[in-house]
Amino acid sequence: MKISYYNIGCKVNFSEIATIQQKLEKKGHASVEFGEKSDAVIINTCSVTNNADSDARKIIRRALRTNPDALICVLGCYAQLKPGEIAQIEGVDAIFGTKEKFNVIDYIELNNKNNKPEIFVSDLEDLPFHTACSEDNESHTRLTLKIQDGCDYVCTYCTIPKARGKSRSMPFEELKAKLFELNGSNYSEIVLSGVNLGEYLSPTGENFLDLVRFIENAGLKQRFRISSIEPNLLKPQIIDIISKSDTFCHHFHIPLQSGSPEILKAMKRRYKVEYFEKLILSIKEKIPDCCIGVDVISGFPGETQKHFQETYDLLQKLPVSYLHSFTYSEREKTPAADFNEKVPIDVRKSRTIALRELSDQKRKDFYYSQLNKIKTLLPEEFDINENTFSGWTENYVKTKLIINDAHSVKIISDENFALKESFRGIPIKVKLKQIQGEFVIAEQTA
């Protein structure tokens, strides 16, 4: 069969659909680009915002227009939370919830088009942990490895625990074996990911700190990047290890959500503003070149201009490097959906725009702070017109390296004229020289 795939949402979602694709390919099925003619389409959904739900419906309808005779299978968080809503879209054949999503592999091989959709969605009790990993870019240099799933938090705005269930993790011995297996691969960077990564807890008792210690001492050849981690779970011992490490990237992504004590309390976050501020300052004291990204939500119910200004002022003064700004949207079956004092949509969006503008300035300031420093670039793409490699440094600076020696690059053209090069993914020591748009231009150094 020819099968196409579409993913909406986070790195964990992406790793799961990539694993499903890999397993179907091993069974002999061909993968084709989404939008091309195919016998089946698998769509993995997100439900973190209303926009994510809307995007899922648009993609499903687009798949049906392109492939009206194909088997249409929908899975993921939106499928778990609102299967009936998806079932109303004529032409959908099967809907798989969180517990059942990997059953799509067998379903694809055994079924034909249905007159009405089959719904495979059950409760979230006794959920297994499914290992999943995916290439994080087309250059095959970075791999995202899911080591944790689900969440035990009760943030009032969030549907994730209802969509993904309780926290569960990859067994430690299995994870160690996987890391040693990947050590024999050509990947240069491994991204550790999870729905609530810092909650990693093996059935045998090892926690995320134990994992960080293991990786630091295991002698693995890749560099490791930690994806989003809750501030209360980013322990001082983890920061200490990474401050001295050549294995871990100097990069953290830490959700704040609000810099207002009152709003943070209404969100039922597990830390206070003062703690978050001390955490950021502690990281920068121990790891001065660390890139710190922050998640923030604007327009939460009850957020006045004063509350928003508290958030803005906190982020403006803290040495963070960029922001991921989200506009609050009501999610069914969450406590915040029933809160009073709704913030008008236009006000929510204007606050998001203000935060994104602040983010642009923060990123530029961070890039300026890194000029004339020696970093390690992981080349991902080669531009034959500019004669440059582009990629990311260990501390998440988007970088272009100008290649002056033409003999150092071997260009190969395949049938699609896609450019490849002989040392893509091989770390290169570079000196960061000047900012050019969203990139920092670098020169190679010995």
Give an account of the 3D structure.
By secondary structure, the chain is of the alpha/beta class. It folds into three domains: 2-120, 3-Layer(aba) Sandwich (Rossmann fold), CATH 3.40.50.2300; 132-369, tm_1862 like domain (pyruvate-formate lyase- activating enzyme), CATH 3.80.30; 374-444, OB fold (Dihydrolipoamide Acetyltransferase, E2P) (Beta Barrel), CATH 2.40.50. The chain contains 13 helices and 21 strands. It has helices spanning 11-26, 50-66, 77-81, 83-87, 104-110, 160-164, 172-183, 208-217, 236-243, 261-267, 273-286, 305-317, 345-369, and strands spanning 2-7, 30-32, 40-45, 71-76, 94-96, 118-120, 132-135, 142-149, 168-169, 189-194, 223-226, 251-257, 291-298, 322-327, 374-383, 388-393, 398-402, 411-413, 419-421, 428-436, 439-444. Helix 8 runs parallel beside helix 9 and helix 12 (305-317) runs parallel beside helix 13. The model is unreliable at 406-421 (pLDDT under 50).
CATH superfamily of the largest domain: tm_1862 like domain
Broad CATH class of the largest domain: Alpha Beta
Described by strand count, sense and barrel closure, the largest sheet is: 6 strands, parallel
Mean pLDDT: 92
Shape: globular
Helix content: 25-40%
